[in-house]
Design a protein that fits this description.
Layout (H helix, E strand, L loop, with lengths): L2 H29 L1 H4 L1 H30 L25
Helix pairs in contact: 1-3
Length: about 90
């Protein structure tokens, strides 16, 4: 596996763990409103959980797409490919 690809996948996995922890924490706040207060529970349920969920789905989609990408596409900084040869239409 290309080193840059491996690094990106590692970072996406770390982000996924953060999302999971945030969702678990938010779920605990929502399911235990007496401990954290009703207002905070409702705010968490209405804002944080959907946004974190959408972010987690996008993160997982990115991970799936990157893991299936071709390793040769990860060679950045190389010379661009030569332009295609142009056909000279003036010659018969």
């Amino acid at each position: 596996m290309h080193p840059k690809k491996a690094e990106f996948l590692k970072r996406l996995e770390e982000t996924s763990r953060v999302h999971d922890a945030a969702l678990e924490r938010s779920f605990n706040v929502v399911t235990n409103p007496g401990q954290f207060g009703w207002e905070r529970s409702l705010l968490t349920a209405a804002v944080v959980v959907p946004l974190t969920g959408v972010s987690a789905v996008l993160n997982d989609l990115s991970h799936a797409l990157l893991s299936r990408s071709d390793d040769s596409a990860w060679d950045f900084g190389g010379a661009p490919p030569p332009p295609p040869k142009q056909i000279d239409e003036t010659t018969d």
